[in-house]
Amino acid sequence: MRTQVAIIGAGPAGLLLGQILHNAGIDNVILERQSAEYVLGRVRAGVIEEGAADILREAGVGARLDREGLVHDGFDIHAPHRDIHINLKRLSGRAVIIYGQTEATRDLMEARQASGRPTIYEAKDVALHDFDSDSPKVSYVKDGQKHEISCDYIAGCDGYHGISRASVPEASIKTYERVYPFAWFGLLADVPPVSPELIYVQNPEGFALCSMRSMTRSRYYVQCGLDETAEGMSDEAFWKILKSRLPAEAAETLVTGPSIEKLVAPLRSFVAEPMRFGRLFLAGDAAHIVPPTGAKGLNLAISDVHYLSQAIIEHVQEKTAAGIDAYSQKALARIWKAERFSAWMTQLLHRFPDTDSFAAPLQRAEVTYLADSEAAQTALAENYAGLPY
Ligand code: APR
Ligand code: PHB
Fold first, then answer.
1. Is the CB of 162 under 6 A from ligand 1?
2. How much is the pLDDT for 31?
3. Distance, CA 155 to ligand 1 centroid (Å)?
4. What is the mean pLDDT of residues 229-257?
5. Is 308 helix (H, G, I), strand (E, B) or coil?
6. Whose CA is nearest to atom 36 of ligand 1?
7. Nearest ligand to the CA atom of 42
8. pTM, whole model, 2 decimals?
9. What is the CA(295)–ligand 2 centre distance, in A?
């Protein structure tokens, strides 16, 4: 088989890239290790920047987002000594949209199907070849049979555990990593959210977050130990911990109910540089991970794909390599700012075990400063709402 762009991974990054290229008339094939149901079964964050929403709309996959997404003009930060309302709209001029990543992925899968371009699910043993030449290839096994695709470009959109980044010789890639000494325990339930906007809670016992998927479905998280498991905590135990960390008013109005999904997510900051190796380009979680505190994961995948799709389209249609040459640098400039913001927000809101005596009062002062300074709130708002492309 031959195609112009072989895309590895059918997560949001791979699917969106496929869609934008399809819209530009560029042939592409997506190879995905799992089944479509498995991909949709993964539950992830759900805060979309306006800039990212514009890219989804432009790609033709924004209709349901605009119908069902909840526009949030701000959010709250609660700490024992201060309550801070971050008015995103007033401070940054922009709002965010609450829309589950699973829903965004479903919209992209439907658009993919309508495009008629091939997606090969349950493609095993995907391997990348000759991406340092002008004629790269990708091989895979489907139903026990080996296949090969010749292409002009390979897009590695296969997430943190994918094969694309791992295929690059070690000497050609540099990675930066921070692993946090705690995780998030998340619970999804069909109960109305405790508040119409998100609440990020800093508590001496640990972080908590009140989020939602709709006005009848809530998403809550509490900071937990790295040894916690999804099965290890009962719904009752979760609600009790959450309630104990919430501000009094929220704790009183909290509606609990049976979980429909539970997960434990470790927190990591990670960047791989560069993001281009000859004809191989990395995008999304394949190249970087942020801790979920700033809700940047999906938004970064979308901005990478925006830059990469424009670069490939330019190379194919105008025969100029300026875009693909600049891709890595351009994407990384935005990624590092989001890494900085996500690490900062994580530091601000979590309980860090085993820190020195200075850490807690510093964290308290950081909250006080944020509460008292409109300049500090503006900096937070412009990062949360999304930096320009
Ligand atoms: N071969 C083919 N597909 C693979 C391989 C492989 N060897 N390894 C991984 N994949 C697939 C995974 O099964 C997954 O469906 O690549 C896809 C990668 O999707 P994501 O992990 O969702 O990554 P991405 O599309 O970059 O989306 C980033 O996901 O984790 C969140 O916070 C993150 O919101 C962000 C988004
Ligand atoms: C979520 O709704 O899952 C969510 C929201 C905000 C975050 C992280 C996760 O910062």
1. yes
2. 98
3. 12
4. 97
5. helix
6. 298
7. 1
8. 0.98
9. 6
- Per the structure block, which two tokens stand in for 196? 């119409």
Give yes or no for residue 157 CB within 6 A of ligand 1. Answer: yes
Which position has the token pair 């009790």? 240
**Omega of the bond leading into 274 within 30 degrees of 0 (cis):** yes
The DSSP H or E segment spanning 345 is helix 322-349
CB atoms closer than 10 angstroms to residue 77: 22
Q: Closest Cα to atom 23, ligand 1: which residue?
A: 159
pLDDT band at 185 (very low <50, low <70, confident <90, very high): very high
Q: How far is CA 238 from the centre of its chain?
A: 24
Residues 134-141 have a mean pLDDT of 97
**Distance from residue 57's CA to the centre of ligand 1 (Å):** 22
Cα-Cα-Cα-Cα dihedral sign, residues 30, 33, 35, 38: negative
How far is Cα 331 from Cα 127, in angstroms, rounded to an integer? Answer: 25
Q: How far apart are CA 207 and CA 222, in angstroms?
A: 6
Burial class (CB in 10 A: 0-12, 13-18, 19+), 292: buried
Question: Residue 308 and residue 215: Cα distance in Å, rounded?
Answer: 35
Does position 290 have pLDDT exceeding 80, yes or no? Answer: yes
Q: Which positions are annotated as active-site residues? A: 72, 200, 292, 296, 384
- What pLDDT, on the 0 to 100 scale, is given for residue 43? 75
Range 370-382 average pLDDT:
98
- CA-nearest residue for atom 6, ligand 2, is 295
Per residue in 107-117, pLDDT (tens digit) is 999 999 999 99
Q: Do the beta carbons of residue 34 and residue 42 sit within 8 Å?
A: no
Q: Which atom of ligand 2 is nearest to the CA of 219?
A: 2
Residue 277: predicted pLDDT? 98
Token pair 């006080």 is found at: 368
Strand order across the beta sheet in which 47-49 lies: 47-49, 96-98, 70-72
Amino acid at 84: I
Residue 32 has pLDDT above 90, yes or no: yes
pLDDT at 281 over 90: yes
36, exposed or middle or buried, with CB in 10 Å at 0-12, 13-18, 19+?
middle
Q: What is the pLDDT of residue 101?
A: 93
Pair of tokens at residue 84: 């801070």
**What residues pair up with 271 in beta bridges, in sequence order?**
176, 288
Residue 171 confidence (pLDDT): 97
The pLDDT of 230-256, averaged and rounded, is: 97
